[in-house]
Amino acid sequence: MTDEGDALIGADGLRSRVRAALFGESPPIYRNFTTFRGLTDYIPNGYRPSYIREYLGAGKGFGFMMLGKSRMYWYAAVKAPQKESDTTMVSKKELEMIFMNWFPSIPELIDATDESNILKTNLYDRVPVQAWSQQNITLLGDAAHPMLPTLGQGACMALEDALVISKCLQEQTNPTLAFQQYELQRFARTKYIVEQSLQSGKMGELENRYAVALRNAFIKLMRTAISNSFKSIHTYRV
Ligand SMILES: Cc1cc2nc3c(=O)[nH]c(=O)nc-3n(C[C@H](O)[C@H](O)[C@H](O)COP(=O)(O)OP(=O)(O)OC[C@H]3O[C@@H](n4cnc5c(N)ncnc54)[C@H](O)[C@@H]3O)c2cc1C
What is the DSSP string of 7-27? Predict the structure, then answer.
């Protein structure tokens, strides 16, 4: 199918065809982690609504939070240097084994979730490089700057991009100039967050018990600074 228009915004995700057409085929970088995401009605005992609970172990982690008023969303990340296919089926048994001796809410949540409600995803990003635009064509969201989900910012960045791009197009009717403005406004912030997400992923990758103990001590020591850095990401205004 073909179509015509004044401009094109490639918002087609991690393996963007628009990106490949602009800059050539280059696969995203696999970052040695696979993740599982689940949805269930089961709410663990003692869970405090509006809190995210996150547990970090040696080369793996688990978190959960409420979605809306009655559903629990949970996520698990597991180090996997030997990448399996992106479409491998989820084995709940395997997941139960991995988190068997963890805080009781975790195996309970896995047990309470239908296998069909668990999504497995390998994790990728790209090294941030300008430019995303060529004349009247640009990229947005994961097509432009895919990142690890360790700070939970990928979709947030796509939404911010969309807001900035719409403002630029309102102020500047020439799409080529509007896209230059858009890129200028978005590059530094998204680069920073892609890089911070990768750093954060490295913390989760540690497996050596001394390195893990050191990391845990560091997180305890730095908890105010860590919380402030999240606040500064969340309070950004375009
Ligand atoms: C495990 C995990 C947890 C995450 N957690 C969070 C989180 O807590 N918070 C957060 O902000 N982000 C999170 N993210 C990141 C978030 O999912 C992505 O950053 C976000 O979905 C990117 O949005 P996008 O619109 O750029 O791309 P996508 O959501 O990938 O959307 C691209 C769309 O383009 C379509 N498409 C692709 N190719 C074509 C084509 N050729 N023709 C037509 N359509 C096409 C696709 O079907 C898709 O609908 C997480 C990601 C993962 C993997």
Answer: -EEE---TT-HHHHHHH---P
The rounded radius of gyration (Å) of the Cα atoms in the chain is 20
User: Is the CB of 142 within 6 Å of ligand 1?
Assistant: yes
- Domains of the chain, first to last: 8-28+127-234 (3.50.50.60), 30-124 (3.30.9.30)
* Distance between start and end Cα atoms, the chain: 36
Query: Which residue's structure tokens are 């941030």?
Result: 128
More confident residue, 216 or 85: 216
Residues 38, 46: Cα–Cα separation, whole Å: 19
Per-residue model confidence as pLDDT tens digits over 55-78: 999 999 999 999 998 899 999 999
pTM of the model as a whole? 0.93
Ligand 1 centroid–CA 31 distance in Å is 17
Quick check: CB of 202 below 6 Å from ligand 1? no
The mean per-residue pLDDT over the stretch 156-167 comes to 98
CB 111 within 8 A of CB 89: no
Q: Is the peptide bond before 20 cis (omega within 30 degrees of 0)?
A: no
For the Cβ of 153 lying below 6 angstroms from any atom of ligand 1, the answer is: yes
